[in-house]
């Protein structure tokens, strides 16, 4: 039995990832990046997120799962994921269904809570994850749904102590996805909370957020991403080097 499965009784953290490839990931960054550059950047983001998540899963005593889309890419991404991860195919016709399946699957396996995160929030750190877990496990006022908002009206991490079908039954790629999720949770009788803040790298303009984070000393969780940007982007207006 793997260490990931042994820890699943407390909680599970699931990283959602896509198979990298030019024209398949981070297409909103091209232009100014080329499609090949956008794919290369995503590979580095993913590698950083997997390394960071494996470490924080060990610190928090959590099982780690990498959920891959499309399913045909499971073997390829399993070969690059840290050994802590159990690698599975995402299931469902859209992101809402895939998130629902991942949450239900983890809880059916005995997890007391599940954390869902994307693969493009490079500065999401262990302190934020620990804060979300603390709200889910609070001895007197535990919350059912805890989210860490991002800069675009969504969230980079959602924690679930209780799950109800229909929680994610709304458009997922909008500027109101955070408020929509919280409203759905309330309608389903689930308690909620919002903890911390983070940001995703969705467009070239978001690189300014990452540059500012590094300048503030918050770049330690994404060394591969920062090195790739320093080596491949020379326009100061787009990516100021350290």
What's the overall average pLDDT, rounded? 92
Fold-level CATH name: Spore Coat Polysaccharide Biosynthesis Protein SpsA, Chain A
The topology string of helices and strands comes to: HEHEHEHEHEEHEHH
Shape: globular
| Alpha carbon gyration radius | 17 Å
Please report the total strand number as a whole number.
Answer: 7
| CATH level 1 class label | Alpha Beta
Helix content: 25-40%
- Distance from first to last alpha carbon: 44 Å
How many separate domains? 1
Q: Quick one: biggest sheet?
A: 7 strands, mixed
Spatial strand arrangement across the major sheet: 3-2-1-4-6-5-7
Summarize the structure.
It contains eight helices and seven strands; from the N terminus they run αβαβαβαβαββαβαα.
What topology emerges from the helices and strands here?
Elements: H1 3-7, E1 11-18, H2 35-60, E2 63-69, H3 74-80, E3 85-89, H4 95-108, E4 113-117, H5 126-136, E5 145-149, E6 155-160, H6 177-187, E7 192-194, H7 207-215, H8 223-232
Parallel strand pairs: 1-2, 1-4, 2-3, 5-7
Antiparallel strand pairs: 4-6, 5-6
